[in-house]
């Protein structure tokens, strides 16, 4: 772990990454790709130590309230957050200035900030996005070894539901020959239904691989799934997109399940929802009484 002073914190779309790198160890992580130009080891977390000060300056200068996003590149609730609490400090600012927030994570550490997330949602809007890929717990511990398993993430989604915080699930990636089965997708979708998620983001049943990410993934296959590296290479070569051979039937099942259970599956509709800041939220709440 090392510390830097960042020049800015919010992107043009009001997203922020407080850390660079990750310690969750997911075998498929796209953020490892060479195109992101990491100049340090991926597990040597770069900490933007001045992020709260930059965020407060940015929020105070905005003319209009909006949604602030975090977690698109690196999980805001990885291990070092327990000590550093940068995510919490930034959530406190978002709460104080009454902006909205959407947080993307795989970690149950988010429950530490449940009261804060609830306060943000009461004043404006909070949406938690949780990635679910692998229903089988033992397989999940191989694919995503240093973070809580899918069962625990489902429990987190339930707790958020009970506290009135809307949720969105990322059903991605689905790894060919590993978790691209009807049983896996069905298990995850039933979790989503039971947890009352607003929507599920799925771009297709498969995965993507780029330079940097590809090498790390194939090394993991050699360790945990002997012979699968060669099977991938024969079928996909150096392709960027690696679709499951069951993609058609799995996507049909996914869409039918979402339609039947009133879960939003249109990606554009979900993204529009994530970016929409509720106008006059306080007035709407008062009008209920």
Account of the 3D structure:
This protein is α/β, with parallel strands linked by helices. The chain is built from twelve helices and eleven strands. The strands form three sheets. Strands 2-5-6-7-8-9 form a six-stranded parallel beta sheet, with helices on both faces. A three-stranded mixed beta sheet has the order 1-4-3, with no helix packed on it. Strand 6, helix 4 and strand 7 form a beta-alpha-beta unit. Helix 6 packs parallel to helix 7 and helix 7 runs parallel beside helix 10. The radius of gyration is 19 Å and the shape is globular. The protein starts with a strand and ends with a helix.
Count of individual beta strands: 11
Cα Rg: 19 Å
Shape, please?
globular
Low-confidence stretches: 282-289
Mean pLDDT: 95
Structural class: alpha/beta
The helix-strand sequence is EEEEHEHHEHEHHEHEEHHEHHH
Described by its quaternary structure, the protein is single chain
Q: What can be said about the biggest beta sheet?
A: 6 strands, parallel
- Helical proportion, percent range: 40-55%
The largest beta-sheet arranges its strands as: 2-5-6-7-8-9
Q: Compute the number of helices.
A: 12
Distance between the termini: 50 Å
Strand content: 5-15%
């Amino acid at each position: 772990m090392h510390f830097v002073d960042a020049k800015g914190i919010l992107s043009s779309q009001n997203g922020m990454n407080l850390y660079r790198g990750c310690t969750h160890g997911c075998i498929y992580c796209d953020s490892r790709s060479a195109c992101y130009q990491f100049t340090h080891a991926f597990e040597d977390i770069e900490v933007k130590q001045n992020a709260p000060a930059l965020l407060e300056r940015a929020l105070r200068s905005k003319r209009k309230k909006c949604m602030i996003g975090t977690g698109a590149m690196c999980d805001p609730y990885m291990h070092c957050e327990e000590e550093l609490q940068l995510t919490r400090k930034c959530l406190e600012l978002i709460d104080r200035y009454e902006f909205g927030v959407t947080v993307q994570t795989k970690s149950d550490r988010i429950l530490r900030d449940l009261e804060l997330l609830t306060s943000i949602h009461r004043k404006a809007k909070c949406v938690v996005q949780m990635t679910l890929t692998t229903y089988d717990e033992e397989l999940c511990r191989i694919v995503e070894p240093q973070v809580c398993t899918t069962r625990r993430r489902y429990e987190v989604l339930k707790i958020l539901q009970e506290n009135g915080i809307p949720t969105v699930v990322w059903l991605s990636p689905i790894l060919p020959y590993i978790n691209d089965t009807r049983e896996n997708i069905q298990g995850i979708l039933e979790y989503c239904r039971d947890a009352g998620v607003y929507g599920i983001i799925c771009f297709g049943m498969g995965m993507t691989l780029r330079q940097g990410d590809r090498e790390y993934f194939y090394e993991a296959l050699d360790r945990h799934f002997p012979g699968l590296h060669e099977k991938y290479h024969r079928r996909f070569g150096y392709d960027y997109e690696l679709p499951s051979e069951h993609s058609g039937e799995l996507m049909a099942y996914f869409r039918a399940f979402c339609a039947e259970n009133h879960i939003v599956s249109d990606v554009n509709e979900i993204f529009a929802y994530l970016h929409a800041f509720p106008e006059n939220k306080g007035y709407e709440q008062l009008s209920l009484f």
